[in-house]
Structure formats: C-alpha cells, structure tokens
C-alpha cells in the first residue's frame, strides 16, 4: 500500500476493547471470521486507494471487475448494483467547501451478509464520524452490517440538509440584492447557485434509488429489524429532494425578477433619454429656424430676438414641469 493508502478493519463484536486491525492484517482478518461460522460482521475501510489495493480487495472477496473499475474511476453517479452475494453502491457526502462552493466526496461500498467495505478516494467526514461512534460503543456486536450502513446513510443524508439551508440563505441574499441596489454580479451568482442545486438534486435522486432498492429487495443485508430505520432515511431523502425542488423554483423566480428589473431599468434609461431629447427639440427647432442665413430673418427686430431667446429657455422649463407633473421623471 503506497501513496498514503490505508486499510483498517473493525470487528462488530461486543466488548469494551474494539478489535481494530490496520494494514495487511485488516484485509486478512475477515477470512478467519468467515471461516469460523460465527457470523461476526466486520467493517473494512480503505482510504486513498491505489490500483494494487483494489486488486487485493477483488482477489480477497471476488468482487466483480466492473465494480472495481467504478472504484478506480471517480465521479460515478449515485447508484447501487446487485451482485447476488453482495451489492455495490456509490454514495456522496455533500458539504460546503471554501468560498461557499458545494463539494461532493465520493464513497464506494460493498456490503454482504457479514462484511462491509467502504472506499474513500478522499476523506469522508461521515465515515470517520461513524467509525468513532461504533468504536466507542461497547454494544457494537448488536449492530451488524445493516446498522452500520444505516448510520452511514443517515449521516450522509443529514449533512445534505445543512447544504440546502446554506444554498437557501445564499439565494435569499441574492434576492435582496436584486430588489435593492444591484451591482451586476447577481446573474453570475444565480447561475452558479443553479448549477449547485442541480448537482445536489442529482445526488439525492440517486441515493433515494439506493434506499428504495434496499427496502424493496427480497434478500438483502437489511434485516426486518433495521427496515424502519431505512424507511426513516427514505423519508429524509424525500424531504431533502422536495426542499431542493422548492429552492430551484424560488431560484427560477429570482432569475425572472432579475430579468424584469434589468428590463425595467433599461426602460427607465430609454425614457429619460427620450425626455431629454424632447426637451431640447424645441430649442433646436427655434435656433435653427431663426438662425437661417437670409436677409429677412430674424427680421432685423430686437423684439423677435428676445422672444426667440425666451422661447429657448421657457419651453424646456415648461416641458420639464409638465413631465414632472405627469410623473414621467
């Protein structure tokens, strides 16, 4: 194992002292458990895997090459595949990263009757939290694979609500900017927020399918005792999915409001420019008419000269008053 990859295993048995193995011993441990027939479950966790690490897992558990290939190539969609003796799933931890950007950490796992294998290309906080929780619980022997799986899914799904709330707060701030003093950056923020919501929705949809599969499958690692817990996770996923859909609708309304305010601002500018042109139009006409180079104009009359000057000043003032009275300004 190179490049910082680490194997560790935890036997799900009761007792104050947890049996934790690391390195090659972690991978060899399940063999003895499997051969004993005691049905003791074991949880194996692999961080920062290499091709050699995954090849060892494939050889030890006879995992399907396609599932191993999915572990090697990241950015898989959230899904679950049934391989009769075990099933393979890809899940995601959703969290807020630097700069309020939404980040997705991939988690691959294999689950059988008495083993659970989790693979973290990059650290997943939910795995570490559940690991510490199981290690600290002296009743871990009552857990089984299905209960550990429930704890992982519950932690992943609960984390998505925090992200959705953060996205909702960001949307509220942008709406305030749209309805207040705009600085021109709102459209870019809305589009970035929309991409984040679409990505979150896609992950939640895949994880909902995973839980649905676990609940409807006739023979699976989820026992009848654990089924209510997974139904609770399914309810949480439905609620998160509906919440992100609501936020997407609100975001669509915000984009419509932004385009409407931009259009209104453009109309106001055009109206002001039109009014400005209309105000100077009489002065332009008067000065151009009386400024023609003919001997009869401007009639060699001082009175008409003053009348022309007064009209050039008075007509724009009168038009300004008239526009103001009719609230065009």
Structural notes for this entry:
The protein is α+β, with helices and mostly antiparallel strands and about 325 residues long. The chain folds into two domains: about 5-260, 2-Layer Sandwich (Beta Polymerase, domain 2), CATH 3.30.460; about 265-325. The protein contains eight helices and seven strands; from the N terminus they run E-E-H-E-H-H-E-E-E-E-H-H-H-H-H. The protein has helices at about 25-35, 50-60, 65-70, 125-135, 145-180, 185-215, 225-290, 300-325; strands spanning about 5-10, 20, 40-45, 80, 85-95, 100-110, 115-120. It has a seven-stranded mixed beta sheet with strand order 2-1-3-7-6-5-4, sandwiched between helices. The longest helix is centred in the last third of the chain and has 64 residues, at about 225-290. The model is unreliable at about 30-35 (pLDDT under 50).
């Amino acid at each position: 194992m190179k490049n910082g990859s680490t194997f560790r295993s935890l036997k799900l048995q009761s007792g104050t002292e947890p049996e934790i193995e690391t390195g090659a011993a972690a991978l060899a441990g399940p063999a003895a458990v499997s051969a004993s027939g005691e049905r003791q479950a074991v949880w194996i966790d692999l961080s920062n895997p290499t091709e050699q690490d995954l090849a060892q897992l494939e050889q030890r558990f006879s995992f399907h090459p396609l599932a191993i290939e999915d572990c090697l190539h990241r950015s898989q969609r959230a899904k679950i595949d049934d391989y009769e003796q075990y099933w393979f799933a890809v899940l995601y931890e959703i969290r807020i990263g630097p700069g309020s950007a939404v980040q997705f950490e991939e988690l691959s796992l294999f689950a059988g009757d008495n083993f659970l294998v989790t693979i973290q290309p990059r650290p997943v906080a939910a795995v570490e939290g559940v690991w510490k929780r199981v290690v600290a619980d002296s009743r871990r022997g009552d857990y089984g694979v299905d209960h550990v799986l429930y704890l992982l899914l519950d932690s992943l799904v609960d984390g998505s609500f925090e992200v959705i709330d953060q996205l909702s707060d960001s949307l509220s701030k942008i709406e305030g900017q749209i309805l207040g003093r705009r600085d021109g950056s709102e459209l870019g923020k809305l589009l970035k927020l929309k991409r984040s919501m679409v990505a979150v929705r896609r992950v939640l949809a895949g994880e909902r399918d995973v839980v649905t599969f676990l609940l409807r499958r006739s023979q699976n690692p989820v026992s009848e005792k654990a089924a209510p817990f997974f139904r609770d996770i399914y309810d949480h996923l439905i609620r998160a999915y509906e919440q992100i859909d609501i936020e997407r609708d609100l975001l669509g309304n915000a984009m419509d409001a932004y385009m409407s305010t931009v259009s209104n601002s453009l109309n106001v500018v055009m109206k002001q420019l039109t009014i400005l042109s209309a105000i100077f139009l009489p002065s332009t006409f008067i000065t151009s008419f009386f400024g023609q180079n003919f001997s009869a104009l401007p009639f060699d009359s001082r009175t008409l000269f003053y009348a022309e000057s007064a009209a050039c000043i008075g007509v724009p003032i009168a038009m300004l008053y008239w526009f103001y009275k009719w609230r065009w300004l």
